[in-house]
Amino acid sequence: MSTKAIHLELVGDLTSDAFIGAFRRFVARRGRCAHIWSDQGRNFVGANKLLAGDWAEAKLQFEGSVAEKLALDGTKWHFIPAYSPHMGGLWEAGVKSMKYHLKRILTKHVTYEEMITLLCQVEACLNSRPLGIIDDTSTDNVQPLTPGHFLIGETPITVPTPNLQNIPVSHLSRWHHQQRLMTEFWHRWQQEYLSRMQQRSKWHNKVKEFEIGHIVLIKSDNLPPAKWMMGRIVDKHPGKDGVTRVYSVKSGDSVVQRPFNKLCYLPIDTE
């Protein structure tokens, strides 16, 4: 809820049993889930009753400290009001960021295993987006803070894959076609994400300029999945009207000049 980290799980249908299976996989990998928020879908309401019954039955089999421990391990379910999906906008937006682009890149049928692999890679991309910076004192190596740090302790990564964008689909194996889908998703989602971070009425109102020392995201079209280019503003180049539209940004060991529309603020301002 705080970091908007996303966990994607593939299920075969929308029954309560299928959801409980997904929930058990989630708990086994991520740890105990103390609270769940959801809408009042029949599969969720049914799963809540089944899980509550399982916990009650498990506690009856033990006494003393074991029963108390089982009570603390239970999950409390919170339902939003019926017919009010807008009240679940926090998680609906996260799922939409995946569904919107996934529906546009899937042009042929994939197997269950291929879909699981694709969703796991998509999850890594979504959880790799920079929220802020970990250490602002380093001038050379800027380490971003991502939702993945709160899940696995580090930024999620994807296994490198060759560029398959210019190869006809008919010449690709199923595995290479799957990796091409991953690359297409990454380019679509990254461009939309950075564009939304830059929404501003720049032709009508004067907006706040970047200051020297600010950490920014640099828009780049050729980055591999789950990789982001970040840099530090080292110089400003104002125009004749005093408005700065070009900045010198240090990224790694090099200093490059980038226009204002290729730079983005981080979602979390450390100041």
TrEMBL record:
GO terms for molecular function: nucleic acid binding. It comes from Spodoptera litura. InterPro entries: DUF5641, RNaseH-like_sf, RNaseH_sf. Pfam families: DUF5641. This is Uncharacterized protein LOC111363869. Residues 173-266 form the DUF5641 domain. It comes from the Eukaryota.
